[in-house]
């Protein structure tokens, strides 16, 4: 459950990272997030500022709609392949500069660790991985 609603979140001028979740709000046929121009503009501003933009599962379809995947390497859930062209189907997580994408719920741990590494450092990500017995 979110700790702030979208209006409150959009009133903040900057974030260290934006994480777009998968599931129904991101699924192309429903498209709640990709239809909201405020969300798309926030993603564009975040990417232009060189801050972290990330998405998991179907959510890269929202990033595609915002135009922030242009010229980037990325992955997504196989169900959005027709909507999100050129996705890397062989990688669970793809990090390309300030963009981090992941395939789905089964790759969530790797996704989380990639975010920790990007926002903090590799040593902290490795420490967390060891503490949760992550062997990936």
Q: What can you see in these coordinates?
A:
With 136 residues, the protein is of the alpha/beta class. It contains 5 helices and 4 strands; from the N terminus they run αβαβαββαα. A 4-stranded mixed beta sheet has the order 1-2-4-3, sandwiched between helices.
Q: Brief overview, please?
A:
This protein is α/β, with parallel strands linked by helices and 136 residues long. The protein has 5 helices and 4 strands, in the order H-E-H-E-H-E-E-H-H. It has a 4-stranded mixed sheet with strand order 1-2-4-3, sandwiched between helices.
From the structure above, extract its key features.
136 residues, alpha/beta, Rossmann fold, 5 helices, 4 strands, 34% helix, Class_I_gatase-like, DJ-1/PfpI, DJ-1/PfpI domain-containing protein
Question: Strands, helices and their partners?
Answer:
Layout: H1 6-10, E1 17-20, H2 37-48, E2 52-56, H3 60-66, E3 93-96, E4 99-102, H4 108-119, H5 122-131
Parallel strand pairs: 1-2, 2-4
Antiparallel strand pairs: 3-4
Global outline = globular
SS-based structural class? alpha/beta
Cα-atom Rg, whole angstroms? 14 Å
Biggest sheet: strands side by side, in what order? 1-2-4-3
User: What is the rounded distance between the termini?
Assistant: 28 Å
- List segments where confidence is low: pLDDT < 50 over at least 5 consecutive residues: none
Annotated CATH architecture of the domain at 15-104: 3-Layer(aba) Sandwich
**Could you name the CATH class of the domain at 15-104?**
Alpha Beta
Number of beta-strand segments: 4
The amount of beta strand, in percent, is 5-15%
CATH topology of the domain at 15-104: Rossmann fold
Largest sheet: 4 strands, mixed
**Could you spell the SSE succession in H and E letters?**
HEHEHEEHH
CATH superfamily of the domain at 15-104: Class I glutamine amidotransferase (GATase) domain
Helicity level, as a percent range? 25-40%
Total of DSSP H or I helical runs spanning 4+ residues: 5
Average pLDDT reading: 93
Pfam families: DJ-1_PfpI
InterPro entries: Class_I_gatase-like (IPR029062), DJ-1/PfpI (IPR002818), Prot/Nucl_acid_deglycase (IPR050325)
Domain DJ-1/PfpI: 8-117
Organism: Guillardia theta (Cryptophyte)
